[in-house]
Write a structure and sequence with these properties.
binds 1,6-di-O-phosphono-beta-D-glucopyranose, binds magnesium ion, magnesium, globular, single chain, 6-stranded parallel sheet, alpha/beta, about 220 residues, magnesium ion binding, about 10% strand, HAD_sf, EC 5.4.2.6
Length: about 220
């Protein structure tokens, strides 16, 4: 039986990926590093510091830890300028309706996001109340693809892994779910997320019956 659904935030509930991209691009430009939308794909689901490391590596730049902290903080300020403009309705297609359906069917709802800004985003979208449990980037010690974030979510929800389903848009996140032995729905492009148990373009395209058959094949 499906007793809980655990959602990634960025790319599943709301498209903040475009804001991350714009902020990283601005930083990369200042550093004289080329950074494309394709490069950005690698950063999805990855923590802020690891993202910066990937960009610096791409530009073959080595800098001090102190300077790194400063750059990451600057990126986050730019990111927050975009995020702070978000309002209810800016969530991805079908997200709110899907959460409503889960609530109506007494299925618990958790968040498993690598972002340290996850609570802020949910508040701005007025969606915090849907979540019985929130696990975000401030609470984890091991980044995706480690399953820690989703295991912590299931534990806090008091639901077994086999009764939970994870929703992810990033490869690192799908691997995290599978490393924790969760069933996982990929949200996005089947060519990129083919590893997931099923892939849908958005939460508007999945029904409760499909979820149930995923857990009871
Ligand atoms: P922050 P998710 C992730 O969110 C993003 O996909 C990733 O691009 C970002 O670097 C990470 O959060 C950290 O975000 O800088 O806000 O702490 O997909 O795990 O919900
Ligand atoms: Mg994501």
């Amino acid at each position: 039986d499906v007793k809980a659904c655990i959602f990634d935030l960025d790319g599943v509930i709301v498209d903040t990926a475009k804001y991350h991209y714009l902020a990283w691009k601005r930083l990369a430009q200042e550093l004289g590093i080329t950074f494309t939308e394709e490069d950005n794909e690698e950063l999805k689901g990855v923590s802020r510091m690891d993202s910066l490391d990937i960009i610096l590596k791409k530009g073959k730049k080595e800098i001090s830890q102190e300077k790194k902290e400063e750059l990451a903080a600057r990126k986050n300020e730019w990111y927050l300028e975009f995020v702070n403009e978000m309002k209810p309705g800016d969530e991805l297609p079908g997200a709110r309706q899907f959460l409503d359906t889960l609530k109506q069917n007494d299925i618990k709802i958790g968040l498993g996001s690598s972002s340290k800004n996850a609570k802020l985003c949910l508040n701005l979208l007025n969606m915090t109340d849907y979540f019985d449990v929130i696990v975000d980037g401030t609470m984890i010690t091991k980044a995706k693809p480690d399953p820690q974030i989703f295991i912590m979510g299931a534990e806090k929800l008091d639901v077994k892994v086999e009764n939970s389903i994870v929703f992810e848009d990033a490869l690192a996140g799908i691997e995290a779910a599978q490393n924790g032995r969760f069933k996982v729905v990929g949200i996005g492009d089947p060519d990129i997320l083919g590893k997931a148990d099923i892939v849908r373009s958005s939460l508007a395209d999945i029904t409760l019956d499909e979820l149930k058959s995923l857990n009871n094949p």
